[in-house]
Every structure is written in structure tokens, then in C-alpha cells.
Amino acid sequence: xxxxxxxxxxxxxxxxxxxSNQPDAEHSTSLVDPPKALKxxxxxxxxxxxxxxxxxxxxxxxxxxxxxxxxxxxxxALTFADLYTKFSSKSxxxxxxxxxxxxxxxxxxxxxxxxxxxxDSRVSSGFFASTVSGGLPxxxxxxxxxxxxxxxxxxxxxxxxxxxxxxxxDPENIRDIAFREFGNLxxxxxxxxxGVLVRDVLxxxxxxxxxxxxxxxxxxxxxxxxxxxxxxxxxxxxxKLCELGWLFRKVKGYISESxxxxxxxxxxxxxxxxxxxxxxxxxxxxxxxxxxxxxxMNPIPLVSETASSGNYLSLRRLxxxxxxxxxxxxxxxxxxxxxxxxxxGAMAGAIHVHAQxxxxxxxxxxxxxxRRVCSPLFEMVRSWVLEGELDDIFAExxxxxxxxxxxxxxxxxxxxxxxxxxSFISQSLAQRILRTGKxxxxxxxxxxxxxxxxxxxxxxxxVGTTTRRGGLGYGETDALESLVVEAAKRIDKRLMDVMxxxxxxxxxxxxxxxxxxxxxxxxxxxxxxxxRPELSEPANTISSxxxxxxxxxxxxxxxxxxxxxxxLDRLRVKMMPHGTGDRGWxxxxxxxxxxxxxxxxxxxSVMARYLIIFNFxxxxxxxxxxxxxxxxxxKPNSITSHFxxxxxxxxxxxxxxxxxxxxxxxxxMNHFLxxxxxxxxxxxxxxxxxxxxxxxxxxxxLDDLLAAQEKYLHSIVEKSLLGERSQTLCKTLFALFDLILxxxxxxxxxxxxxxxxxxRTTESSMPSRDRIKSRLKSNDEPSGxxxxxxxxxxxxxxxxxxFLRIMGxxxxxxxxxxxxxxxxxxxxxxxxxxxxxxFLLFRLDFTEFYSRLHPSV
Length: 857
Hints:
The structure is a single chain. Among the domains are: 132 residues, no CATH class; 133 residues, no CATH class; 100 residues, no CATH class; 211 residues, no CATH class. The strands form three sheets. A two-stranded antiparallel ribbon has the order 1-2. The longest helix has 50 residues. It is built from 34 helices and six strands. The protein is 64% helix and 3% strand. The protein starts with a helix and ends with a helix. The chain is mostly helical and 857 residues long.
């Protein structure tokens, strides 16, 4: 019903247009036949010819109105505006829906007549007259060799503005013939047909030179020679389509080059997987080209032909077909440029960067590509985390291994290669992956334990993955992290159990504290008593075997004998390198033999720091032992006071002054040493040990254990003034120790002299016979300050006074030097970095004696 109404309206329009232009009756035979004109109009309206302008009704009406105004027809413009307002306001079932098309038709018919007037005779007389001017093609008449379509000049003179195409009486389909003639004319102007160019473009997209389109190395691209005449638009389109061939050559060249040098290390398994993934994409590309090759064999129909088959290939159709492959090939070319000098994890990371794209096509393409590329990398991660195997012959993994000794396996055997760490694996996850594999190798190599295999299987079961190959892939980072976390938790727990239960790590730490840090008091005291005679000798005369025997005696004579025999067997005597003039005290030390796997924690550097601490504590105990020995010598001499009355007044006063000076100096030194030893033993060693035990209990892996051990040692070294920042203070402290030992030797000389003075004074009051016997008996005894014999009692008194004067001067010298050193030591304590050293200052100057004595301090 609707189609019939449209046909009636078109028929009425054609008849009105023809009737308004009827000439006189004598010319009626040469006019257009209305049925033929109607048939031609219907064919035009039912064709697919469409204007290349946007559908905008208001813009079209405005264009017509503006055109009328420009021609000076303002009244017509107003009339048109009024008519258009009424026309556009009509709505309903019986009204025209496509109003824009009606306006456009009227505008084109008007312009067709106007442009025909301006065209030259050559154009107006031929087929192209109306076509070139923008109108509709006309028909030809059989009776004339020139223009077969005539327009009534009389009606033009009368001012008729409509314009219409008059249809020929020729019963043939002249419109198709006209389009063929137009096509032939174009073929004469174009030297190369579009079909040939299409086939050349397809060849170029396979990296092959075509008949006309060839690769130019100078331009680095496919070009169409200048002598081949094609329209400019066609040449541009050919060059754009040939970009796909240039990209194909780049990708194909990279694959060929990589495969040619594959055995070399700079390709690797990840590079091989990348090439395989690219080759798979090129295989899909080849399939598309095969389909297009088949379609290119079909001829390209003319515009007017309806074509028996739509499977032909033109340049424009080819550009549509190449839209998606062009995006993929460009992306592959970019990846090839990015990965030329990369391999392994670095290559996977570079490709991953390009996967962060908002286009779903690109995102899915990159995801598919990365799953292939990252397959070897994820297999390395799985093998390392669950089996401890570093299957990386091309050094592509972000974990590097190197052959080392068993004790260095944990610290130096494996490390992260950050250059090979892909960006989709975080630094923390990489560290955990590294530690998990290290733990497996440590258990297998150092601990000779196989329980880690069950822990790895449990971890894989817990996260729902498999221990076989191919269980992980790109895009499953969460699953990878879950697997690593579970495996690390179980394997680290296994490692901690082996270290604490099987190898008794805690017990060995306690043994080192008791013997190397001198925490076993009775053992240390007995050892110092029995080795003192030996260590007082020159270092080059001391036998280490004899000292080892004395060590065994000290163990058997103290509570150390009840310790584990394995621990006692590891305790040994060590003689440090010595020079000329060194005494046994300077080179004696103890060492603890930490075997595999304990030597992973107690390394040579760690034991060297323990040795430094031992030497410091050993000297502190030696100084304390020396002061105790001086006290033992000083106390029994109080019985000598009964013979003071027999001495002369000056000598008696000198003796009392010297003894009192010695006693006061000993008290000062003992006060300093007692508080220093309390600080070292309790504030430093015990507090640090307590903190070490707490951290040992919460340690989850071997790295935590190593960190706790490092913190423990660092705390002792820094608080004991042995750190780098306390070197000046440490030198002052050791100078004080040497001064106290010097005081001990002077005190020994003083009291030996007093003993001999007493003996000689007693001898002078004995009968002559007993005096001779006493002299004979005392000849074998050493004299503290030379012979007192000779010159009688007066000479004895003079020599005693001289000896006491010299000893008094020496003690004053020691006292002044000690006060100076102690003042400097106390002055440096407040400026130390460690806060605990302020507690030492508080203990040493509790009564503010030194603060009042030396206000500058």
C-alpha cells in the first residue's frame, strides 16, 4: 500500500513537470515519452546512489534560503521560509516522513539547470554534461549523433527555473552503457588497473616484490614507480596498505635472525618462546592472505553493475580487511624493536609494559602473546620454589646461582638479578621466591634433609595448583604469589625445626655466650688462675698444646664439665699472630668450631667479631684479676704496722704516706673497674642476650635468624665501646687497663720492698749467730730494691727512705696519669651515640665526685 502511494506521487510529479514544459503541437513528436520518463525516474530513485553530505533538514532549508537571498530574490526567500514552516509542521500518517530528501531533490534539480547554463558546449553536448555539473546523468536519442537530450530554450527564456532531465525514446538500458563508457575512459587515463595493484599489495604484504610495487632499500619501504600513472589518491592508498608489508618484513626478519643464532646465549628460551608466539600470529596472518588472494582473482565490477558475486577485492575493501592485521603487526613490530637486545625476564617485562592498553583487541592479543612468552619463566619459578632447581642454562631467570662452599651457600650462593626481574613480579615477591629456593637448597645440601619435598607438595595442594610443569602462567600472578607464600611458610618452618631441634642452634649460641663471652664465671676464674704463669712468658715461648691441656683442666674443674660433650669438643685454644715483645696475654684467645650448617650463621666474619669481644672481655678480666692480686698482697701487710715504731720518724712518715697513696689509688681503680665490669656484664651482655632470645623465638626463616644474630653482635660491639664510632674512647679505655696493670707491678715492688725492710730490720736486732744464719737463708730470695746489708742500721734507714721516695714518685706519676685518662674517658661518654653509655657515666659518677673534682667535665 505504501509503495503504491509512493509510485503514484512520483508519476504525478513527472507528469506535472513534463506538462509544464509542453511546446507547440507541431513539435510534440520529438518530446519525451511520459512512461519512459517515469520508468527512468523510478530507476534513479531506487538506485543506491546517495549524496555525500550529512542528513540535516534545517541546514538544507537554510542553504536554499541563503541561495535565494544571494541571487537577490528576497521575496522568494520569504515565501520559501513560510512554505517550509508549513511543510515541516505537517505530521501524521499521510504526511511525508523524509522531508530532508524532498528538499535535497528540489535543490539538486535547481542547481542542475543553473550549472548547465555555465558549462561549455563540449560538456553540455555529451554524456558528462549533467554528471560533471553535479546533476543526474541523461539519456541519448537515436536520431542524433550529438546530444540526445534537448531542453526547451523557449521555456528557459520564459524564466522557468525547475529543470528536468528528459528521457530518450531508446528502449535499451542506456544508463549502463553510459557507465561503461565512463569506465573505459578512466581505464584509458590509468595505466595500471586496480586489480593488478591489489595483487601487488598482497605480494608486498608477504614480503615479496610485485609487478609494479617493489621494496626500495633507500627509502626502506614499498614504493610505486613514478612513471606508472595512477591517481594521487590511489597511490596514497597503495603506500598505506604496503605499510603492512614493511611491518611484516621487520617481524619476519627478527624471527629468522633469532632462530639462526638460537644456540647462542643471547636468545634463550624466553626469546625462543617469543619467536614461536610471533610465528603463530604470522600463521593466522597467512590464512587471511590466502583468503584475500582467492578473492583478488574475481574481477572488480563497475559502479553500475550489481556483480554476480560480492567476493571481489578492491583497494578500499583491502584497507578494511587490513585494519585489524595492521594493528597487530604494528604492535608486533614495536615489540620486536623493544626486545632486540633483551632476553629472559627483561624481555618479558618489556612486553608486559605494552599489555597495559585500553583497547580490548590489543589487550587480548598481548595477553595471548605473553602467556606463550612467559611460559619458560613461570616454569623456572615453579621449579625453583617447589624443587629448588635452578633450570636456567641461558641466565634468563632473575635468580642467579654460583658455585660456593657449603658455609657460604646461603649468603653468596644465590642472589637476585634485578635486570632480569619482570615488572609484573614485585621486588618483595622476588625476594620471597629467592629465599624459598635457597631454603630448599640449604636443607638439601647443608642439612642433608629431605623433608622439604613433603612441605612443597603440601604448599601446592593448599593453593590448588600442581607440582607438574605448566601449572602456572601469565595473568596468574595472584596464584603465583599464593603458591610462593605457602611454600615459603612451610619450607621455612621445616628449616627452623631442623636448625633448632636437630642441630641445637640455641644451645650453641648459649655455649658461645658462656665461653667466648666469659659468662661461665667459675670456668673463667679457674682458667685465668692456671694460665697466668704461662701467659706471663713471651709469646714465642708458649706452647699451644700446653694451653690446650690447661683448658681441659679448667673444664674438668668447673661446672663446664656437665655441658654437652659435642659443645665442649668445639671449644679450643687459639694463638693469634704475635710480634716481638708480645706476651702470652696478648695472643691468647678461645675459639668455637661452628661446623656445617651452623657456620652459615657463625661465619668467619661473625667469629672474628666474637674474637674481638673475647679479647676485650679477657683483658677486662685480666685487669680485674690483677687488682684482686694486688689486694691480696696489700691486706696481709697490715701486720707490718707493729714495727713502724722502730723506724725513724721521717722514714715512718714516708712509709705511711706511700702505703696510703697506694691504697687510695687502688680504691679508685677498683671503683672504676667494678662499675665498668657490671655495665659490660649486665647492661650489655645480658640485655643483648635477652633481646636475642626474644628475636630468636619469633624468627620465621633463616634470614630473620641471621638478622637477629647481627643485631645481637652489633649491640654488644657498640655498647662495649668497640664500634667504629667509639675508637677514641676505646683507646683511652685500653690505656687505663695498661695503667692499672702497671700499677699492679709497682704495688708488687712496693710490698716486696716493705717485706724485705721488715726482714732486715728484724735481722739487725738479732744476735750475730742468728743474723749469719738469716743472711745465708735469704741469699736465695730476690730483693725488691737491692741489698740492704752493709753500713749498719743507719745505711739501712737511708736506703729505705730512698726506696720509698722513688716508689712514691712512681705512684704519683701513675695517679696523675690515671686521673688525666679517667677525666678524658668520662668527658667523652656524654657525646657517644649509643644511649646506654650514658648509664655507664651515671654509674661511674654516681656521687658526682668527678663532676665536682673536674667542673669542666
